[in-house]
Backbone:
């Protein structure tokens, strides 16, 4: 067979253009969790349960009413009657009344009536009586239901590669299988000299490395590799295998037989049964590359030399696979960064989970028992026992958790469905820490977040109807070098079961309420509106709120409020309109609130924040906001605080 010269060599840029324009279409299938590692999620995963599903103890000790311990001390303990014992996994029921306690193990459900756990170290027990030597506050040593993962929360976004953290979190919420993108890539190694690993190597033969290198690379990108084995340098044999691969795969990779030697036939075969788009790239190593299409299926012929084949794969093919699957370039195993905020170590050898955003490292530990500590981290830093404090700006090296996808922006503050829409439309990756509005302010003050979503109202004559959002809080906290970007308006009201007659705040007395948590803007707004309602009526505010059972309660989100009402543990709640329709609840509007964004001034001009603001101001964002949320004339306005 005659030697055929390469066609005109194309540039690296041209090769990228041709390969990036190849039409490769993944399919969708469901995989069990044990088989889903490394694959790309095809749909958003929304949780159907709370994690934990019940309030649970995070320490061994005694479940008590916190108010029973307030008078105790190390020398004058409070004595409580022991009424039982609850182990982890137990379904035994107790009701703790005043003066009583239940022995409880870590992970066990909190009994009715109890609102705190006294650690066993601060107690003693004798003859059915427990002595408590240290007071506890409400909620101490308890992990609330849904405090780790909330029902209805978008936990993992479509397009995410499923790693060890994602698999663990999916299992923790009961997912048996998940929808993934299936991009099947066929692998053919050609050459009479090749032998499969494990077989006897005779003179003149070499082991086939390319099949397995490419298999691992394809798998690493989240695609599905399919091995067709070694094909001899025979045109008829190659054609037969290619025809099978074309019928089964979305993309075909071959190695070897792409050069212009007399024994190289792959490029001739592509010419004959398909269309050759390019033959030869002006790059070293990796010049002899064939790019073509056979019956609509793209085929890329890589060089036979293992180093060249892997170089071309990493430079051209892997980006195509990741782009097709919505993946981005993988990170190195370690990455340097600087600590973004001062924090205290535990005074012992520690591997601290951390997040990494634009070179800034922040602690990602959500506390004992939180699965999402790991899920929200990109890696860990090692802290020696001699270190008590780590100052902001300290250089550190992060050991990454495999191939992680760093978020573009860290957002703290109150939850809002508008944030999901901003993430989707901007194409940015958010890492959201839903800490309530007050937590958002604290995160900005501590330099641990880029942006905070906030909606804290204050009585102030400068505001509409005497209510001003967020600015008084900024002034009271003395925050500087920040900006407040005006966001959008949200309808706030009472969320009511269909069988209950509630037309407004006047109907709340006697109705069991599930309120929002302290520090949330929605709870603060309800307080203001109640004060407005009773003004001039000669009604004492405390008496009014005391007449509403559950007013002192505090759900972490509107989703939790709806869940409480649906489960008939409350008759009415407070929240935004968005979550009522899909939960079959009535909505009784009593106000519109302003949901804004606090941003650190130093990052205002970064590409990520510019894209965030561009999306916030876009017509597409305005048109796609859910019912009850709307942009207005101040949306996108920037207020500077020096």
Residues:
């Amino acid at each position: 067979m005659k030697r055929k010269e390469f066609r005109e060599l194309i540039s690296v840029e041209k090769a990228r253009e041709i390969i990036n324009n190849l039409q490769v279409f993944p399919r969708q299938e469901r995989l069990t969790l044990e088989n889903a590692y490394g694959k790309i999620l095809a749909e958003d995963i929304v949780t159907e349960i709370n994690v934990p599903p019940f309030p649970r103890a995070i320490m061994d000790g005694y479940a008590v009413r916190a108010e029973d311990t307030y008078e105790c001390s190390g020398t004058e303990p409070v004595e409580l009657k022991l009424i039982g014992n609850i182990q982890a996994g137990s379904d035994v029921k107790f009701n703790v009344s005043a003066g009583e306690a239940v022995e409880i193990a870590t992970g066990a459900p909190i009994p009715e009536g109890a609102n705190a756990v006294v650690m066993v170290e601060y107690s003693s027990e004798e003859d059915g009586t427990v002595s408590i030597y240290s007071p506890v506050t409400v909620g101490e040593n308890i992990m609330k239901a849904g405090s780790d993962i909330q029902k209805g929360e978008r936990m993992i976004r479509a397009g995410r590669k499923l790693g060890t953290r994602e698999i663990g979190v999916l299992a923790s919420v009961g997912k048996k299988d998940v929808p993934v993108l299936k991009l099947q890539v066929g692998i053919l190694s050609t050459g009479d000299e090749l032998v499969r690993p494990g077989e006897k190597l005779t003179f003149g033969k070499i082991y086939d490395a390319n099949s397995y290198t490419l298999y691992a690379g394809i798998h690493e990108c989240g695609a599905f590799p399919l091995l067709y084995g070694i094909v001899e340098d025979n045109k008829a044999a190659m054609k037969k295998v290619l025809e099978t691969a074309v019928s089964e795969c979305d993309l075909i990779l071959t190695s070897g037989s792409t050069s212009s030697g007399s024994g190289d036939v792959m490029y001739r075969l592509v010419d004959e049964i398909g269309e050759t788009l390019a033959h030869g790239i002006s790059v070293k190593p990796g010049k002899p590359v064939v790019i073509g299409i056979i019956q609509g299926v793209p085929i890329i012929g890589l060089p036979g030399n293992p180093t060249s084949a892997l170089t071309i794969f990493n430079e051209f093919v892997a980006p195509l696979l990741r782009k097709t699957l919505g993946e981005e370039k993988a990170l190195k195993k370690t990455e340097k960064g600087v600590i973004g905020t001062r924090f205290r170590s535990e005074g012992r050898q520690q591997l601290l989970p951390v997040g990494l955003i634009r070179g800034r490292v922040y602690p990602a530990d959500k506390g004992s028992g939180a699965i999402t500590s790991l899920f929200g981290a990109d890696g860990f830093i090692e802290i020696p026992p001699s270190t008590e404090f780590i100052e902001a700006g300290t250089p550190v090296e992060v050991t990454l958790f495999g191939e992680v996808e760093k978020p573009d922006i860290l957002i703290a503050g109150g939850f809002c469905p508008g944030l999901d829409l901003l993430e989707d439309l901007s194409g940015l990756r958010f890492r959201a820490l839903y800490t309530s509005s007050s937590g958002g302010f604290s995160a900005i003050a501590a330099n641990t977040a880029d942006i905070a979503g906030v909606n804290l109202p204050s009585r102030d004559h400068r505001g509409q109807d005497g209510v001003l959002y967020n600015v008084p809080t900024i002034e009271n906290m003395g925050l500087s070098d920040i900006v407040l970007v005006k966001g959008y308006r949200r309808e706030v009201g009472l969320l009511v079961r269909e069988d209950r007659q509630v037309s407004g705040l006047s109907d709340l007395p006697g109705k069991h309420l599930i309120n929002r948590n302290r520090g949330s803007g929605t709870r603060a707004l309800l307080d203001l509106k109640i004060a407005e309602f009773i003004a001039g009526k000669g009604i004492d505010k405390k008496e009014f709120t005391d007449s509403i059972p559950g007013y002192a309660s505090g759900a972490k989100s509107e989703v939790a409020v709806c869940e409480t009402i649906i489960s008939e543990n409350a008759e009415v709640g407070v929240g935004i309109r968005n979550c009522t329709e899909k939960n079959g609840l009535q909505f009784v509007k009593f106000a519109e609130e302003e949901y804004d964004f606090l941003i650190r001034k130093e990052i205002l001009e970064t590409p990520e924040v510019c894209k965030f603001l561009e999306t916030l101001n876009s017509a597409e964002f305005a048109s796609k906001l859910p019912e009850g949320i709307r942009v207005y004339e101040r949306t996108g306005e920037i207020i500077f605080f020096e």
